[in-house]
Amino acid sequence: MTRADIETAIAEELHRIAPEIEMNDIDRSEDLRDECDIDSMDFLNLVTALGQRFGAAMPEADYPQMRSFEALTDYLVEKTA
Amino acid sequence: MADNLIVKDAALARVANLSDYDATRATFSWDSARAQIDGLSGGRLNIAHEAIDRHVATGHGDQIALRWIAKSGDRTDLTYADLQKQTNRFANVLISSGIGRGDKVYALLGRVPELYVAALGTLKAGAVFCPLFSAFGPEPIQSRMEIGGANAVITSGRLYKRKLKALREHLPELREVFLTDGQHDSTHDLAELMAQASDSFETVAMNPEDPALLHFTSGTTGKPKGVSHVHEAVLAHHVTGRFALDLKPGDVFWCTADPGWVTGTSYGVVAPLTNRTTMIVDEAEFDVTRWYDTLAREAVNVWYTAPTAIRMLMKAGSDAARVHEYPALRFMASVGEPLNAKAVIWGRDTFGMPFHDNWWQTETGGIMIANFASMDVKPGAMGKPLPGIEAGIVDVTGDSLREVTEPMTIGELALRPGWPSMMRGYLHEEERYQKCFRDGWYLSGDLAMCDADGYYWFVGRSKDLIKSSGHLIGPFEVESALMEHEAVAEVGVIGVPDDTAGEIVKAYIALKPGFEPDEDLRLELLGHARKRLGPAVAPREIAFRQNLPKTRSGKIMRRLLKARELGLPEGDISTLESDEA
Predict the structure, then answer these.
(1) Is residue A27 less than 8 Å (CB to CB) from chain B?
(2) Which residue of B has its CA nearest to A58?
(3) Which of residues 89-148 of B touch A (CB under 8 A)?
(4) What SS3 class is residue B272?
(5) Of B109, B524, B496, which is closest to residue B283 (Cα–Cα)?
(6) If you classify domain A3-80 with CATH, what class do you get?
(7) Could you read off the pLDDT of B197-247 as tens digits, one per residue?
(8) Is residue B332 a part of any domain in this protein?
(9) B71 touching A, CB under 8 A?
(10) CA A21/CA A32 separation, integer angstroms
C-alpha cells in the first residue's frame, strides 16, 4: 500500500460522504472537518468506512491523530505498514 | 417503567438549590423570584447587566467567567471584568457603526470568544442578538437573515467567503459585516475597531418586553420560524439554571451545546453567567478523549450535554471514562431529545450519578420539565414541571380541548403561558403563533403522558419534524433545496431512526424523465443538498422512487413513507391518490 493509494482511498470515501468537496480546493494540513465542512457524524462515518476498507481498528482514542487530511494519511500509512 | 428507580442520597438532596420540590413549588411565584435579579432603575433591565455588570459591581470581577479551549488545546481565560470591558467595547463599536436599539445583530461563528462578546455586547447596546449555527449552508443562512431582517453580522473571514459573500446582494437590510479575522471588501476588521473603542459603556436600560434574542426553529411546512424572546426572559434563564441545573456561584459549568441553538444561548451564555459560574467553552467538536480530559482537568462541577454525545460516549465504553476520576463532578444533565433509560443508567454506573434529562423548546426559552438534583430519577422520564410552570396533557380534537387526567394516557404536552422566557411571537407570522394557543394552554406539538407520581414521559412528536443529533429539522426546508436540482421531479423527506444521532434525514426522490437513478446522480444530489444546506441539515441518505405517495391535492404523504421505512402499519390511507412505485 503506497501513500498515494491511501490518499486516493481517503478521497474516495470523503467523496461518498461530502461529494460537493473539490479535493484540490482543500488545505490538506488544516482541520479536515473545517476544510470539508463535515460534522461529527460525517467524520464518524468516514473513519468507519476507512476502518472497514483497510481492515484496521481506528479507535476513538486515536481521533486526535486524524485531524487533517495529511494527519489521517500518516496515521493510515502507519496502520497499514 | 419505574422498576429501576434511582434513589437520591438524602444528604446530597438537601444541599441542592431545589432541595424540597413540593414546598418550593407551592410557594414559588415569578414576581417574588424577581428579587434574584438586579434590574435597572425605573423597572427596566438588561440581560447583559444581570450576566456581567452586576457581578463586577459586587466585587467578583476577578472570577473567570469564560475559559475558552481552542482547537489546539490552548486555553484563554476571560474574567468577569475582562468580559465587561470587551462587551463594552463591542457595544461601542456597534453604536458608532449606527447599530443600536432594536437592530438585529447576527453571529455566524464557531465557538470562539468573539461569539460570546458579540452576544452580550449586542444586548448591552439594546440590539437583538441572533446566533446562527456555523455548519449551516448558504440557504438556511439566507432565509434566517431575510426573515429576521439582519442589520449586522459578525463572522470569520472563512465563513464570510464561503457562505455569506454571495448572499449580500439579496440582503438589502444588512448594513455592516464585522470579521473576526481576514479582510474582504465592504467588511470591517472587528479587532481593529475593538482596539479603538472605549472600554466603558452604559448598558442600555430596556423595557422588560423589549426583544432581546431571536432563535430560529423548524416548522413542518413553510419557512423556519423566527422565535422572539425578550429581556425579561433572563429571570427564567436564571431561575431554571438554579433549579434544573443546580448552578451555584463559583461552579465550573460546561454546556456542550453550540450557541447557534437555543440551549447554547439560554444555558451556554445567559444562565451560567447570571448565576456567576465559570463557563467552559470548547471550540472543537465532539471527541471522546478530549471530552473526558476536559471534564477532569477543568474540574467541571455541572455538565449539560445531549443524547447524541452520550450515546457516542457509551459506544466508546466506560473504560475510556475511567482513565480519569471526576471528584468535582456533581450534576449531569441532558437535553435535545428524550434520553434513553439505558443512557441514564450508564451515567450512574460510569460516573456514580445518572444523567438528568430535561425538556423544553426554542419557544419556551428555558427548561420547563426536569429531573432535579434532589429528585429520585425514573430512567426514561423527562421529570416534573419546574416551580412556576404548570404542565398538562391535553386531547385536542377539532376545536375542542380536553385535559387528560388519567395517568399514562397519551396526549399533547401543554403548558399554561405566563413564565418570563415564553416566546413573544413568531416573526411576521401572527397566525402561526396564535395557532400554538388553545383555551389558555400553549400546545407544544409533542406527545407525552404523565404517571401517577407526576413524572412526564415523552412519546413522540405530533408533526413531521426530524430530530437529528438533537437539532430540529423541518422536512420542507430540505425538500425545497432538493427541488432546485434539475433532475428532481418530487421529493419527500423523513427522519429514520439511527443509533447515534437519534434520527437521520432521508430523502425519497422521484426523477424527471430523462434522468437515470444511478450512483453518480445520487452523489450529485447529495452534494447539491450539502452545498446549500450544510451538513447539519442536508440528508445523509437518498433513495430513488419512480413515484411518491401523494394525496388528492398532490401533497406528498411523509407519514406513509415513514411507516413503510419502519415497517409500521400504514394507518388511514383514504386520502392516498397516487401511490409509491
Answers:
(1) no
(2) B316
(3) 135, 137
(4) helix
(5) B109
(6) mainly alpha
(7) 999 999 999 999 999 999 999 876 678 899 999 999 999 999 999 999 999
(8) yes
(9) yes
(10) 11
How many structural domains are present in chain B? 2
Closest to B264 (Cα-Cα) out of B255, B252, B253: B255
SS3 state at B508: strand
Interchain contact, B524 vs A44, CB within 8 Å: no
Query: In which element (H, E) is residue B578 found?
Result: strand B576-578
Q: Do the domain assignments include residue B363?
A: yes
In which domain, by residue range, is B178 found? 10-449
Q: To which residue does cell 419557544 refer?
A: B363
- Please report whether residue B454 resides in a domain: no
B472 and B445 belong to one structural domain? no
Q: Please write down the HEC assignment for all residues of B404-461.
A: CCCCCCCEEEEECCCCCCCCCEECCCHHHHHCCEECCEEEEEEEEEECCCCCEEEEEE
Over B459-470, what HEC string results?
A: EEECCCCEEECC
Of the partner residues A18, A20, A60, the one whose CB lies closest to the CB of residue B289? A60
Do B553 and B418 have their domain in common? no
For chain B positions 230-289, those within 8 Å of chain A (CB to CB) are 285-289
Other C-beta atoms closer than 10 Å to the C-beta of B183 total: 9
Contact B132/B87 with Cβ under 8 angstroms? no
Whether residue B568 lies within 8 A of chain A, CB to CB, comes out as: no
Please report, for chain A, the start and end positions of each structural domain, with discontinuous segments joined by +. 3-80
Cross-strand pairs, B396: B401
Express each pLDDT in B472-508 by its tens digit: 888 888 988 998 899 998 899 999 999 888 899 999 9
Give the Cα separation of B491 and B180 in Å (integer).
Answer: 39
Q: Are residue B185 and residue B289 in the same domain, yes or no?
A: yes
Phi-psi region of B442 (alpha: psi -120 to 50; beta: other; left: phi over 0): beta
- Let me know if residue B455 belongs to a domain: no
Beta-ladder partners of A31: A68
Residue corresponding to grid cell 470579521 = B179
Distances (CA, A) of B513 to B333, B489, B490, B517, B547: 51, 9, 12, 11, 12
The partner residue sitting opposite A18, judged by closest CB among B162, B285, B530, is B530
Q: Are residues B166 and B266 in the same domain?
A: yes
- Interface test with chain A among B294, B314, B530, B533, by most A beta carbons within 10 Å: B530
* pLDDT tens per residue across span B14-38: 999 999 999 999 999 999 999 999 9
Are residues A39 and B536, on separate chains, in Cβ contact within 8 Å? yes
CB contact under 8 A, B290 and A37: no
pLDDT tens profile B240-286: 999 999 999 999 999 999 999 999 999 999 999 999 999 999 999 99
Please report the residues numbered 34 through 73 in chain A whose beta carbons come closer than 8 angstroms to any beta carbon of chain B.
Answer: 34, 37-45, 59-61, 63-64
CB–CB of A41 and B285 under 8 A?
A: no
Amino acid occupying residue B285: E
Residues in B 498-537 with any Cβ partner in A closer than 8 A: 500-501, 504, 523-524, 526-528, 530-531, 534-536
Clarify whether residues B279 and B400 are in a common domain: yes
DSSP B60-77: -TTSEEEEEE-TTS-EEE
Chain B positions touching A38 (Cβ under 8 A) are 535
Contact B320 A60 (CB under 8 A): yes
Q: Give strand pairing partners of B394.
A: B403, B412
Instruction: Provide the ipTM.
Output: 0.87
Q: At which of B422, B449, B476 does a domain end?
A: B449
Whether residue B340 sits in one domain with residue B272: yes
